[in-house]
# Entry
Amino acid sequence: MRLVDVHCHLESQHFSGRLDAIIDAARKVGVIAFITCAIVPDEWELSQTISHSFHEVYFAAGVHPWYIKNQYFEELQKLYAITDSKYIAIGEIGLDAKTDMDLAVQKKFFEEQLAIANDLNKPVIVHCRGAFNELIASLKRIGKINAGGVIHSYSGNADIARQLIRYGFYFSFGGALTYRNSKKKLQVLHHIYPDHVLLETDSPDIPPVEKSGQINLPENIIYVVKAMSELIGNNEEEIAEATTQNAKKLLNLNI
# Structure
């Protein structure tokens, strides 16, 4: 199988000093590309450095809604100055109604980063939790995202997915899918497969049920493929190739 992990955090301290082994283990299960997502400006350079250490690694840079600081708003302009062929998206950005961060401040950062993505003609990698109405409202204000994007660890329903597809979005699924306990996710998968579905791990976070309580690793993407196969009834190889082709198309990957 050829697999793409469209959302992970290789910058994490959990991986410090052992990325060679972690990347190699993922290669052995078929991972041919990783998108590592920086969440604050202090990580942007590290993400870039990691991408140059491993030919399979690409990076996204942005400010995550959980970690917003007022001074970061001016830092967003630095996203224009990064010139690197492996800089393939603006992310991780988004909206989260289930965190203490003021939602009006989140919207300010989110919409600014959407505008930057449009200026740079890059896709976005989006975190959205409990805020899909606000997300769609922001998209209506900004307009169509020129290069599309990913809603990572998608938790919305099929109707929301239909609306977001009009804005060029794809939907990635990770460890939460392995619990196989959501009729809503099954309905979404049947609606978006094969044209708008992607795979992720969000490592080191959200391990699959098979590795519950452990630090999540990129190699665990195989459990996500297995769960998706069981849920929708398509074989794992077909899912791997469909999601890889979607990732290549959306993120313009050289794979």
Notes: The mean pLDDT is 97. Strands lie at 3-8, 31-37, 57-61, 87-96, 124-129, 149-151, 169-173, 197-199. Residues 3-204+223-230+238-251 form a domain with the TIM Barrel fold (CATH 3.20.20.140). Residues 103-120 form the longest helix (18 residues).
